[in-house]
Amino acid sequence: MHESAVIDEDVRLGEGTKVWHFVHVSSGARIGRDCSLGQNVYVGKDVTVGDRVRVQNNVSIYTGVELGDEVFLGPSCVFTNVVNPRASIDRKQAFERTGVGRGASIGANATIVCGHALGAYCFIGAGAVVTRDVPAHGLVVGNPARQIGWMCRCGERLPAVGPGDDAVDVTCAVCSAHYRLGPGGCTPDDE
Questions:
Q1: Dihedral angle, C-alpha 68, 73, 78, 83, nearest 10 °
Q2: Do 81 and 48 fall into the same domain?
Q3: Number of domains observed in the structure of the chain
Q4: From CA 147, how far away is CA 62, in angstroms rounded?
Q5: Separation CA 60–CA 80 (nearest Å)
Q6: What is the pLDDT of residues 85-99, one digit of tens each?
Q7: Is residue 63 located within the same domain as residue 88?
């Protein structure tokens, strides 16, 4: 842990977790094993961070955010925790939960509006503004973010399939994992 970091009382830092320059972890936060909190990261009160999470520089993880295992947060991505903030009105009772599933990746400068679930292994493109739930393995980009495809667990885009109601089997060109794509979403063969 860097000497400039501030770790409040009642914080749990998992074994092997690295804390870099100017990090502040607030009371009640739970950080898993083998995580990395980059320079100028803020972790809010009672936030939960899973194991092997990588938080790049200048990220604030506010109260109400829950990160699963192996999540990647790109530089300067943003979470909110109140839908309609006002400086003159205390809305701490209105904090909304944002859940980020295992293996999800959030690109640099993306904004995640609170109250939404980001599914396991989803991929949020750099600069995207997420205003609704993102399905597991979903690839979203833009403002507002819209889904343009599906992602493999290994981080590669899955082959595109045409529109239709029938489920289609696809294979990742990089790691050869098999998935079923259909109206119900993207399901790995091993689930």
A1: -20
A2: yes
A3: 2
A4: 25
A5: 9
A6: 999 999 888 899 999
A7: yes
Q: Read off the pTM.
A: 0.94
What tokens appear for 73 in the block?
């947060």
Q: Which range marks the domain in which residue 162 is found?
A: 158-191
Same domain, 139 and 168: no
Would you state the structure tokens that stand for residue 77, as one six-digit string?
């991505």
* Ranges of residues in the chain whose predicted pLDDT is under 50: none
User: Which of left, alpha, beta for 164 (phi over 0: left; psi -120 to 50: alpha)?
Assistant: left
**Which pLDDT value is given to residue 191?**
66
**Same-domain status, 145 and 175:** no
Terminal alpha carbon distance of the chain = 38
Structure confidence at residue 163 (pLDDT):
67
Tokens of 86: 């006002």
